[in-house]
Amino acid sequence: MKTNRFVLFAWLLSSAPVTLVLGTLALATLASATVLLADATDRVPGGVVNAHGTAAEASAIYAQAVAAEKQLQEFVTQAETGVLSEQQMSKGAMLGEQVVWQARTLNDYYEPAANDLALRAVYSQWRIRNEIELFLQTPRGAQFYQRLTANLDSPKAVKQRAAALEQIIKLVQKKEFESAENMLGKTYANLWPDAGYLWPAARIPLFKPFQEAEGIIRNEMGQRRQAKARAALAEKAKLWTAQRDTLNSTVAEAISQMQASGKVTLGAQPLVGPEALSQLFDRWGAVHHSLVQFAMAQYAITEGDQAPLTLEADRMATMMEKCATEFLVADATRADAEAAKSNYVRYLQVISDTANKVNRWRNSDIFNDAFAKLASRAGMKTPVESYALATDEMMRWRQRYALEKRRTIEEEFPSLETQFKSKLLSSGENLGLFALQQEFPLPLLNHSAYKVIPNLVTQMMKLKVSANDVVRLDGETPRWMIRYHDGIYGRLPAQIKLESGAAGLMNDLIVDADHPPLTLRATAAIRSLERGEFDVVGGEIVGVEMSSFATRFITMPAVGAALVARDDLPASSTDQRGLPRGHGLDSVLVQFSIQPRWVAHRYFVSPVASN
Questions:
Q1: Rounded to an integer, what distance in angstroms lies between the CA atom of residue 550 and that of residue 301?
Q2: What element of type H or E holds 208?
């Protein structure tokens, strides 16, 4: 059975047997609570890392656990600024155990939020236990303790516990494990408000009679929940596989139609090559999005090897590369000169827009031969060659100059990844996300999110940094993000205005409204400029948000697919490292909001205009 590190944490509070069964645990009492369902951020440091809900049942448990944890934090805050009443200490003890039990159940569903919730609960339990022990050392507390133990040891209370245990054992014997778990949960919910006051020597005998039945129930229900999560994962596998197979057959049929007639029917109307290719690229993006969601669910639930799925992403990129080439060649073979000329320019735009989403297509010459054939068909061979002669060397010079200028500026704006890993190294009181000897490439949640976020803010906010790969997310309202790399990604303002560089590039490439660029390299330069996609951005960090690595990608909307290159997967860098199991649930992802001061296009560097 896969476990997470938090199952050990309850031992920090007492030497009593660990009691991590959920059951219903009187959850109805929290039904009306205000629930904060948000990842931890600089604005909401108390946020709990979100659940992915691959197994539908986990979402409701997560919501209840967050509500309980919120109430628990209120007690802790009050304890740090004042005094808790006996009722508050009692309820706090019960809520702490409840959150730990719910975290154990969420762990059975392979929910990364389990670790964050358990870490929070353990600290809160320790804090409330301190208040209890201080209270018990007072005369009033001593009298309270005597009355409480007398009540727990009374014949009536002993008889009630024995009757509950007998009923639980009967349910276990009849293999009615869900009912047995519910009964055990109710029994513990009734015991913990009082048991939280007990010293360990008195607490252990209270729970020991339930220990054997609890172990059987926990094991059986854990296996059932894990089976549900794996069944949900299997459904995701079916969905992505069906989408992949449909894409494969659609692309094959499209190539056949293109070669036969120069048009492709993807809906009601036949489309010319560039428009059909654009739609096929969009469908590819949707399938890759589905693959990312499935791959990350697999990463969380089974920690399966990501290499075969990364190969699937690479295979789809190869297939679409062939598709684009075949479309170009088909038009170079069949289209009349006027159609070939129109399609040539449109193909440049469609392919250059997608090339920025595929690692191996960027700065690549893989389509040059096919474009040369289409240019010849269009009667554009000489103009295209002349244009390339006039612009290629100039772009190479511009690229070298931009790179040197960028390197100079980056001395003041170090790499975001380097800053992140050095500032968030756990050492002494520095609660970070990387261990000193950690070989794992991703940040890990070694402390609760609300403990790490303040340090993350202190260490990273207002730092000058640079980050690679600014991409545009094409939703109803376009957004600009920094593509995901090794546990981090970024958010930028809605609009970036450049002070310089754009007009000069347009002039050098001899481009205006009536004269489009004639090579793929030049088109990619102009289209990336128009779309606001840059190689590097430099600026100050103005916000942070931390979430579960797996959850963020499992729940990622389709528009966010551009955060991952289409020939890659988020967890591909974790393969073949012989890593210990459990990191799939502990890995976190940090988003940095950056106020840009400059951007580096491939062919120029420009300050960002202040608003």
A1: 10
A2: none
Note whether 489 and 563 are within 8 A (CB): yes
Model confidence pLDDT, tens digit, residues 151-201:
999 999 999 999 999 999 999 999 999 999 999 999 999 999 999 899 888
CA pair distance 199, 560, nearest whole angstrom: 52
To which residue do tokens 């059987």 refer?
216
CA Rg, the chain, in Å? Answer: 30
d(Cα 562, Cα 559) in Å, to the nearest integer?
7
Euclidean distance between CA atoms 425 and 440, whole angstroms: 13
Residues 392 and 269: their CA atoms lie apart, in Å, by 39
Please check whether residue 185 is in contact with residue 100, taking contact to mean a CB–CB distance below 8 angstroms: no
Q: Are 128 and 89 in contact (CB under 8 A)?
A: yes
Give, as one character, the DSSP assignment of residue 207. H
Query: How many CB atoms are closer than 10 A to CB 302?
Result: 15
Contact 2, 412 (CB under 8 A): no
From CA 103, how far away is CA 305, in angstroms rounded? 26
Question: Could you tell me the CA-to-CA distances from 195 to 187, 201, 231, 425 in Å, in that order?
Answer: 12, 11, 38, 39
Element (H, E) at 472: strand 470-473
Burial class (CB in 10 A: 0-12, 13-18, 19+), 517: buried
For 510, residues 6+ apart whose C-beta sits below 8 A from its C-beta are: 387, 390, 391
For residues 204 and 16, the answer to whether their CB atoms sit within 8 Å is yes
The owner of tokens 């660990």 is 18
Q: Which residue has the tokens 């690479």?
A: 314
- CA–CA dist 354, 92 (Å, integer): 54
Burial code of 106-140, b = ≥16 C-beta within 10 A, e = fewer? bbbbbbbbbbbbbbbbbbbbebbbebbeebbeeee
Distance CA 145, CA 158 (A): 17
Single-letter amino acid, residue 112: P
- 17 dihedral zone (left: phi>0; alpha: psi -120 to 50; beta): beta
Cβ–Cβ under 8 Å, residues 290 and 246 = no
| Distance (Å, whole) CA 493 – CA 491 | 7
Helices (DSSP H) in 86-176: which residue ranges? 86-108, 113-136, 139-152, 155-173
Run means of pLDDT, 10 residues per run, the chain, 611 residues:
39 32 30 40 74 93 93 90 88 92 94 90 90 93 93 95 97 97 94 90 91 96 96 95 98 97 92 97 97 93 84 96 97 94 96 93 88 96 96 95 95 94 81 72 80 88 95 87 92 86 91 92 94 95 92 92 92 52 75 96 92 63
Instruction: Report residue 53 as tokens.
Output: 């809900």
Contacts of 447 (CB under 8 A, 6+ apart): 119, 431
Total residues found in the chain within this entry: 611
Residue-wise pLDDT tens digits, 435-486:
766 666 778 887 888 888 888 898 999 999 999 999 999 877 889 999 998 8
Beta strands in 337-456 (DSSP E): none
DSSP assignment string, 5-42: GGGGGGGGT-SSPP----S-TTGGGGTTS------EES
